[in-house]
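User: Batch of two.

Assistant: Item 1 of 2:
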Amino acid sequence: MKKTKQLLAGLLVVMGSAAMATTTYAHSYVDESIPADGETVEEPVETLTLHFDAGIEPATTVTITDQDGEEFAVQEENVEGDDFIVELEESLPSGDYNVFWQALGADGHGTEGEFNFTVDAPEEEVVEEEEVTEEDATDEDAIEEAVEEDDGAEENVSETADEDTSDNNTGLIVGIVAGIVVLGAVVFLISRRNRS
């Protein structure tokens, strides 16, 4: 009976140690990503999301290169739970890309890996300016002259309006001053009469 208890206790210790080892040594690896490994995306890529199967630390990094080995700049990296979100400085144009990642797991162990995807986005249309013909240039010159004449007419109207306003203000000021002088004279005469 005593041996059975010891055997059972030993078995529990071994099983507990195995369970702790599995939990403690569960390293962090990418199990999903957006874009996914091998995926062909039909729009420019501005953000990458790497989902890890275990917790990661902010020391995790990503390097994105194209088929020629040119590296693309990362604007911002954030850890949100088990997700590592990468904002790029510029959208990735059409081409094949390799993402190399290095993660520091919550358990303190480092892991690394890579995945690939393709961007097959339609090219942005570039609108070319049409050549300006002599006739178009003459029309544009005529329009500019008309606008300048119109601006000159507006300035003349504005100056005339300013002069009218100025004349009206001068008359108003003269009227107020005259009113004050007359009122002062009346007050002076009344006060002299009362003294006499």
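Item 2 of 2:
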Amino acid sequence: MSLRSRFVWLVFALALPISNLLHLLIEWVESGVPPVTPPERQGFGSRLLQRGLALESEAI
């Protein structure tokens, strides 16, 4: 497979919906890359994101 047939398309956008809260929208599309396998263990970054997102979801 040539490198030209592989790509990652990443789009960021900021949205201000009716609630007047600023939202970050992320769209990630991959093509021509090998399938992702679940990690064997959870690292510091994963735990940090999960805790931060849990706190944010309780605040809303």
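Residues 17 and 23 are 8 Å apart (CA to CA).
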